[in-house]
Write a structure and sequence with these properties.
The complex is a heterodimer of chains A (169) and B (288).
Chain A (H helix, E strand, L loop, with lengths): L6 H5 L2 E6 L5 H8 L13 E2 L8 E5 L2 E2 L3 H9 L6 E5 H6 L9 E3 L9 E3 L6 H19 L27
Parallel strand pairs in A: 1-2, 1-3, 3-5, 5-7
Antiparallel strand pairs in A: 4-6
Chain B lengths: L1 H32 L9 H11 L7 H22 L4 H20 L4 H32 L19 H14 L28 H23 L5 H21 L5 H25 L6
Classes of the chains: A alpha/beta (169), B mainly alpha (288).
């Protein structure tokens, strides 16, 4: 990557994380990415508690009538350039709750989403892959390039092979 | 005259670079202590440059004004010390730099920012007596409030101010926002107080606060070095060791309550420093 001021955004992505209506599964997988096993801070990623300090907004869970305005409020407090990542299948499309009377759907029903990371919950590898994509979009936005919001959820990382059955002697 | 000007320019330009490198080392060391790999050494530079690229979100003009004052008074403190000027004035400008951050934090309506500001005031209340006793101790030793007088000592300050040095190390832990004293804003617990005093700053203004923190890290470690002024390289080594110890304490301690911090600082470190001052006062050879 060539040295430029725009690449600084790619080197120091701070994310804020909002749980819309999630069962906490995605949130726990996201926090697992910060633990010694995956250590996202290697890439300069910091988990901040404040949208005003953040570059990436990560939303888990489906959006309902109550939390849509909270989500919009948080989105409005992100300083540009910023990227939105919808984490988990609920954030992508509503998941198993899609069509329920209180559910609006995925995060893209309320705010523009740049990266979808589907999965229930997504594996930490998929989350890291999604963040790498988000960081690329962040750099493009900083350089003033036009970016299109993601249209549909696509699987970024194929799940690794299923664990082998323990060998019984 | 030209020599002093060059020195000031060197310090003003070099201090944030050193401070940022120290912060990078801090983050790597902290990560290693937690069993992680940690970010690159230059991460604080990336963070700072990124913050200056971000959109400035501002709530009111007072907030911005005090951010600039925060940086300006910290710069003034560093220039005063570099030129060997009055230490009492440097202490005062340093306090006003912190106070600017407090007033800036108070100028917004976020309760987290207000609580962070109030805790910052408590922090000042806790460490300022130690800093004043430090200056008094140096005065008793050199017979002058000028920082330049320290350079003309025949024996390093640590030989006459060992207990004040210990007290200063505790104050250093508060100034660097390390546990158990990181009550106003913290590098680790982002969820408690949501970054406290800096919550309403975004983009470049947060960057200026970070930059000031780099200057302050340099300034405080330069003070540690000043205790060993006849053996500067020994002083630099001790300053590095002190910084490492501060990170260790940060990682092994839990965050304590604000009232505990004030109670602790006004008993143990202040008592240490006062004992040292009394002992020094009774010495016949003190240069008064």
């Amino acid at each position: 990557m060539a040295f430029s001021i725009h690449s600084m955004l790619a080197k120091s992505p701070w994310f804020v994380h909002y749980n819309c209506n999630s069962c906490n599964g995605c949130d726990i997988e996201l926090l697992a990415c910060l633990t010694p096993l995956y250590d996202l801070e290697r890439f300069g990623v910091l988990h901040v508690g404040n949208p005003k300090h953040a570059d990436i907004l990560i939303v888990t869970g489906s959006v309902n009538h109550r939390n849509a305005r909270v989500l919009k409020n948080i989105y409005a407090q992100l300083p540009a350039p910023h990227v939105v990542v919808a984490l988990g299948v609920c954030g992508s499309s509503g998941g198993v709750f899609a069509g329920a009377y209180n559910i609006l759907g995925g995060v893209d029903k309320v705010i523009p989403v740049d990266v979808f990371v589907p999965g229930c919950p997504p594996r930490p590898e998929a989350i890291i892959d999604g963040l790498v994509r988000a960081v690329g979009i962040l750099r493009d936005k900083s350089a003033g390039a036009a970016t299109v919001p993601a249209a549909t959820p696509t699987l970024t990382v194929t799940p690794s092979p299923a664990p082998q059955e323990p060998h019984v002697a | 005259m030209i020599g002093r000007l060059v020195l000031v320019v060197l310090v003003v330009l070099g201090a944030p670079l050193l401070g940022a490198l120290l912060n990078g080392a801090d983050r790597i060391l902290t990560a290693r202590m937690q069993g992680r790999i940690g970010p690159p050494l230059l991460q604080p530079f990336y963070d700072l440059l990124k913050l200056f690229r971000k959109e400035p979100l501002v709530l009111n003009r007072i907030q911005i004004g005090y951010v600039y004052l925060h940086l300006a008074f910290m710069l003034m403190t560093i220039v005063l010390i570099t030129l060997g000027q009055d230490m009492l004035l440097a202490l005062f400008t340093h306090a006003f730099s912190t106070l600017s951050l407090v007033i800036g934090g108070m100028s917004v309506r976020s309760p987290y920012s207000r609580i962070g500001s109030q805790r910052k005031i408590m922090q000042m209340l806790a460490y300022e007596p130690v800093l004043i006793l430090l200056v008094v101790g140096i005065y008793l030793r050199t017979g002058s409030f000028m920082a330049g007088a320290v350079a003309h000592l025949d024996a390093p300050l640590i030989t006459s101010l060992p207990l004040v040095f210990l007290a200063f190390l505790v104050a250093l832990e508060i100034k660097l926002e390390k546990s158990p004293f990181d009550v106003a804003t913290s590098h680790h617990a982002h969820q408690e107080l949501v970054k406290g005093i800096t919550i309403e700053y975004a983009g470049p203004y947060l960057g200026i606060i970070e930059l000031t923190h780099f200057y302050e890290t340099f300034f405080l470690l330069a003070l540690v070095t000043a205790f060993f002024v006849t053996h500067v390289w020994l002083g630099v080594l001790v300053a590095m060791a002190v910084y490492g110890a501060a990170i260790l304490v940060d990682n092994v301690c839990a965050r304590m309550r604000t009232t505990w911090m004030v109670r602790y600082m006004w008993t143990v470190p202040v008592a240490l420093a006062v004992c040292n001052i009394i002992w020094l006062y009774l010495q016949p050879h003190v240069g008064r």
